[in-house]
Structure formats: C-alpha cells, structure tokens
C-alpha cells in the first residue's frame, strides 16, 4: 500500500507539471473534497458498526485529551530543536511546528502575521508532514503500537489521513484519531499566533 501511495503521489506531481492546465485546479479541489467525503462516510460506517468502541471511549473520559496535547507538545518541541540545525529563529520554528499538518490554514496565518517567507516554510513543512504521515503510517501500525499511527498525521488525523488510520488500525483508534484531529485543529488558531508574537 505504501508503494501504491508513493506512485500515486509521483504520478499526480508529473500530471500536474506536464499534463493538466492551471484552470483545472478549481475542479480538482471539488473532486478531492467529494472523494474525501465519500471515504470518510465509509470510515463512519465502519466505526458505527462497532458499538463497543464508544463504551471504551466513555471510560477514558478526559484522559482522551492527553493524546492531542502530547502530539502538539512533541510537534512544537521537535520544531524548536530542529531550528538550530537550519538557522531558523526559535519562535518562528515553534509557529511552523504548531501548524501540525494543517498547511492551508497555518501557512496563511503565518504569512499574514509574520512574513511570506515563513508562510512558505510553514506551508512546505506541513504539506511534507501530511505526505510523510501517509507514507509511514502503514509501517508504524504494523511494527509499532497502532496508537502511534495518529501522531504523524497531526490535525489531518480527522480528515485526509483518517481513512488510512481506519484501514491499518481499529475502529477504536479511528475514533481517537478523529477526536485528536479535532482537538489539534482547534488548538492551531491559538498556538500559531501565540508563538508568532515572540518572533
């Protein structure tokens, strides 16, 4: 599956570069949204069929928030550590890291509140995070704890990466992934401006 994903991304890049005209972008966005909605619909059916999962989630209670908080903390601290090796100011790196995969939103906010250059860095790093998550998720689910598969996805665990998480883990992990993605997506509009005020 990982090989198929790599080939699909590579073919998409080549088609975008050499085949499709720029005007098709409007229709591509609509097609991607429709495809994603269809995939999420089937993920929802799979989760809904496992009623025992909801009982287990209720038992966890507020502890369920520890997962997104841990992922956010790791993302930000990881970006701050990397900042030293790429000569990026500490707080700028923290702002980029706090995008947690939501490239379309965090890049725009960084661009508006700081600079186009940092916005581009935020866009690229968060796009690459999503692509990397798609590529390594099957391996993480197979060779490590399935719960770990949620972390690389970050905020995209609630949408674009959720079908993959559902396929390679369990309905319980899928619900945790969705909740984690929602919580992280809620945190991003606060975290990115917070770190940018120190940049």
Write the layout of secondary structure elements.
Blueprint lengths: L1 H17 L6 H24 L2 H10 L5 H21 L3 H8 L5 H11 L2 H28 L6 H4 L8 H7 L2 H26 L3
Task: Describe the structure in your own words.
- The protein has helices at residues 2-18, 25-48, 51-60, 66-86, 90-97, 103-113, 116-143, 150-153, 162-168, 171-196.
- The chain is mainly α.
- It starts with a helix and ends with a helix.
- The model has no long low-confidence stretch (mean pLDDT 85).
Summarize this structure briefly:
The chain is an all-alpha fold. Helix content is 78%, strand content 0%. The chain is globular and about 50 Å long.
Features:
mainly alpha; 199 residues
Global Rg: 18 Å
Strand portion: under 5%
SSE topology string:
HHHHHHHHHH
Structural class call reads mainly alpha
**Alpha-carbon distance between the termini?**
41 Å
Task: Characterize the main sheet.
Answer: none
The DSSP helix count reads: 10
Number of strands: 0
Mean pLDDT: 85
Poorly predicted regions are: none
Helix proportion = over 70%
Shape call: globular
Number of domains: 1
